[in-house]
Fold:
Amino acid sequence: MRTEKHLTLEDCLQLYLLLDEREEIRRHLGQCGDCLTAFQRMQREFREQAAELRRRVQEVPDEFWRRQRYQILSRVQQKARNQGWSLGPFDARIWVLVASIFVFSVFVIQWAPYQNAVVGMEELLSDVDFRDDRLLQEVSEAVNEDGTTPLRPLDLLVKIPDGSGKRADTERVDDIS
Amino acid sequence: MKPGSIAAPKPRVFALKVEESALLKRIREGETELFGRLVETHQKKIFRIALCYVRDPVAADSLTQDAFIQAFENIRRFREEAAFETWLTRITINLCLNYLKRQKRELERNVTGSAGESGRGDLMSFQVADPSDSPEEQLLRREVMWRIERAISLMSKQQKTVFQLRHYEGLSLEEIGRITCMNVGTIKSHLFRAVQKVREVLKDRYEN
Structure:
């Protein structure tokens, strides 16, 4: 039975590190003065050792902490500058800016050129005085007009003037026949 | 506190958390100069933790700076599920463990092993003896410290982490769990093994 045996160093260490996990050891400590003294001595020395480190760090001069802070902040500022850190990809301002650019682009592309084109066309038409239409009409009439004499193949034959006054083609036909 | 009971929220802790949360928000929004406040609040603790691991004030200073820089670089990814201090402590421990791994590799690469040790500072040399202590007390204190440090040097990295956070920082098992992402059962198991190492180096002192 645990309560009849004295505590070992391991028991004391476990009690020190795990605290209230070992109720049976605590019970024994309540009954055994020797173990209680041994445990308290160990606990005190361990706590002093841990506190020693804490105390010594606290005793480090302020200058050391100031210098350390300065060096950290210098590096932080450098990082922020190099990486454009102040406006990162998750910054809401970035998305607002992107959305604004998009809306503006849509306005410029879709609406503004159309307005300019309409105004430009109106100006052009007022100056033209429909001369192009008239020209177009004239060309159309010229193309569609069938006022030319149809081609007669016999007209292409060489006319040989002779004294009889007959046409050469007629004579030739006569000769053949 | 009995197991299963819920701790009542402490108003001061809550207020600090709200304040810290607001500070983090402003830093994320670009007020990087406010990061100095976080440094001022946590630098001593972070330095102390680093010193426990590396036993060298120069290296601990460098690791403390690196931990803050790493925290700053990742501050936008920090979701505030844990306190900033918990997160920063985790970063510090990871950096320290990586540092120790590098040190060990360098030591192994060196045939004599002297180069790895010669450049290192010493936790004992960093400490200034308290003039109010008697020589016997100073000697006793040094002996206990030396033995505990010897035991820590024999521990695995997990045992070292849980033991140091429990012994030097006085954190509860739940707090250690939040930092190390281990459950309480695993922490107890590592602490139990750490106790064996401590017992080995202290038995002739306490078991007489």
